[in-house]
Amino acid sequence: MKARRRRILPPLFLAGLGFCLLCAFPACRRDGPSGSAGQAVHAGALTAARELDVDIVWKGPLKEDDRNEQMQIFETLAGSGVDALVLSPIDDRALLRPVAEARRAGIPTVVFNTAISGTEHIAFVSTDNEQGGVLAARAVGRLTGGRGRLILVRVIEGVEGTRKREEGFLATLRAEFPGIEVVSENQYAGPSTERAYQTMENLLARFGPVDAVFTPNESTTFGCLRALQDHGLSGKIVHIGFDSSAKLVEALGKGDLQGLVLQDPFAMGYQSLRAAVAHLRGEPYEKAVATAVVLATAENMDEPSIGRLLRPDLSVLGSGR
User: Fold this and answer.
1) Which of 57, 67, 203, 263 lies in the 20 to 30 Å Cα band around 233?
2) Superfamily for the 7-127+265-291+313-318 domain
3) So what's the pLDDT on residue 318?
4) What's the rounded Cα separation, in Å, for the pair 155 and 144?
5) In which band, very low, low, confident or very high, does the pLDDT at 8 lie, cut at 50, 70 and 90?
């Protein structure tokens, strides 16, 4: 008899990181300059699927902060006959009940990118987001000489991954660089570059030019970069961002950005799918996987280890199944 090919469903909200397996890299379809993080997750998952001979379905909400739609997609997929779900949740609680219900129905969930409360998922694959914030704070401290005024633009309230970045950044800044004054740390820009742009416009109008800015994801980095460029401030103040896209890589090379903290979304998609398949096949797998987090600068961006994160290989997405 011919064995049935397993169907692994990744719920990805690429939230950015939208990752669909079920993605919350919140959104399979990103409102960003390139959507490269979500594409890299998809490429990693597809690479693993081909190696393991399984099928994947890639899904996510149209808006990366739409918790209700993400929950509806998850529940629909769980009831559609898939063997497993791979989820990047929008927050750490909204999907807790559906994940538990899926497990009781015999459908395991692997969580990636941002954590979820509880113990009903079978594995967690993620960046050490707090360490990413630490790297960003130390870069700011080094480049400002430990003095000056700083703006932190947050992403979405309740998202565990970006919250860890923000918390790690602020804790390190206060412990190691007390001479840096944080003039704003409570503004949430949401998932769109346009809202991030307007948020930075408002902050500049209120506080005037500052000495440094930290933006903890791709959409806040790109939106705030555009605002700083329009005010003639890019390259004149220290701006450390998070994640990568073609336009952010260009800005890093030109000196408009002084650093980008990078994750490895390809590895997140790849390792998440491998964990799901191993669980289904009764094979050993790691329950907690930490993927790379590094700081890219104009000085190291051409090194191979940094370059593959700035410009992930997405060729698998165009090659068909």
Assistant:
1) 263
2) Response regulator (3.40.50.2300)
3) 82
4) 24
5) low
Nearest-Å Rg of the Cα atoms of the chain is: 19
Contact criterion met (CB below 8 Å) for 40 and 265: yes
Statement: the pTM of the whole predicted model exceeds 0.90: no
User: What tokens appear for 312 in the block?
Assistant: 């992930």
Class of domain 129-262: alpha beta
Asked if the model's pLDDT at residue 79 lies above 90, the reply is no
Query: How does DSSP assign 255-285, residue by residue?
Result: TS-SEEEE--HHHHHHHHHHHHHHHHTT---
In the chain, helix, strand, coil percent, each to 5? Answer: 40, 20, 40
8 Å CB contact between 126 and 112: yes
For tokens 């930490």, the residue is 290
- Taking residues 192-215, report their average pLDDT: 96
* Beta-carbon contacts of residue 224 (< 8 Å; ≥ 6 apart): 153, 189, 196, 197, 199, 200, 213, 215, 239, 241
Cα–Cα nearest to 109, from 118, 120, 117: 120
The pLDDT, as a whole number, for residue 154 is: 97
* H helix runs in 177-245, sequence order: 193-207, 218-230
DSSP state of 65: T
Please list the residue range(s) of the chain that carry CATH number 3.40.50.2300: 7-127+265-291+313-318, 129-262
pLDDT mean over 282-309 = 96
pLDDT tens sequence across 86-129:
998 887 788 889 999 999 999 999 999 888 888 999 999 999 99
Label residues 124-145 b or e (16+ Cβ within 10 Å = b).
bbbbbbbbbbbbbbbbbbebbe
For residues 1 and 83, give the distance between their C-alpha atoms in angstroms, rounded to a whole number: 20
Report helix angle 160-176 to 129-144, nearest 10: 40
